[in-house]
Specification:
By secondary structure, the protein is mostly helical. It contains 10 helices and no strands. It is globular.
Length: 201
């Protein structure tokens, strides 16, 4: 099925792109959210990913299995660019005169929720990883790609994927331990950093 889909995508078949979106938009969205931690940004990444997929369609090999690694590779690059743009925007905004801050009671209430505390702890640990380690973790652990597919998505050797994933897991275990010890995490921290895997399609 995917071989035929690849051929149709390369030929610019709009119906094929509709099928591509229906089949993989959720997977791209989940991957983008895991890299950014922001639902709104993840939605933007989905749109930009499929725009880039259309623009780059002739680069897709005619032979191969699932096109999911190709799409997640594009999504990873789009996320990098989006985060760089966000940093530039934040830096520009920081240079503007500040208005008097208004207390946000919503954040105070949310801070009392256990789920919010757990999510914050996980994000803190993930933020301490190198970008390349977060990307491999998102692809292999959360999106369920095998080493070869993740290597294809990132354009790196399989051995690089293995070593990055190993470092990421070791660092996460180290970073999460003190958070758990201070009572900021409840339950199984492994579950917290490993959402339900998406099957390979």
């Amino acid at each position: 099925m995917d071989t035929n889909l690849r051929t149709r995508i390369r030929a610019g078949d709009h119906d094929a792109f509709g099928e591509l979106f229906d089949a993989y938009a959720r997977s791209v969205y989940n991957h983008a959210y895991r890299l950014t931690g922001d639902w709104a940004v993840a939605e933007d990444v989905v749109s930009l990913t499929f725009l880039d997929a259309w623009r780059l369609r002739e680069r897709l090999d005619t032979e191969g299995g699932s096109v999911r690694p190709w799409l997640l590779g594009i999504a990873t690059n789009v996320t990098r660019n989006t985060r760089r743009a966000a940093r530039r925007h934040a830096a520009a905004m920081a240079r503007l005169p500040r208005e008097e801050a208004v207390r946000d009671f919503a954040e105070e209430v949310a801070g009392r929720l256990d789920d919010a505390a757990q999510l914050a702890a996980v994000r803190t640990a993930l933020a301490r990883l190198r970008r390349a380690e977060r990307e491999v973790l998102a692809l292999c652990v959360w999106s369920g790609l095998d080493y070869a597919a993740a290597a294809q998505a990132l354009g790196v050797p399989v051995g690089t994927v293995r070593s990055r994933l190993s470092r990421a897991r070791a660092k996460l275990a180290k970073y999460m331990e003190p958070l758990s010890g201070r009572g900021q995490m409840k339950g199984d921290r492994t579950t917290a950093v490993r959402p339900i895997r998406e099957g390979n399609r």
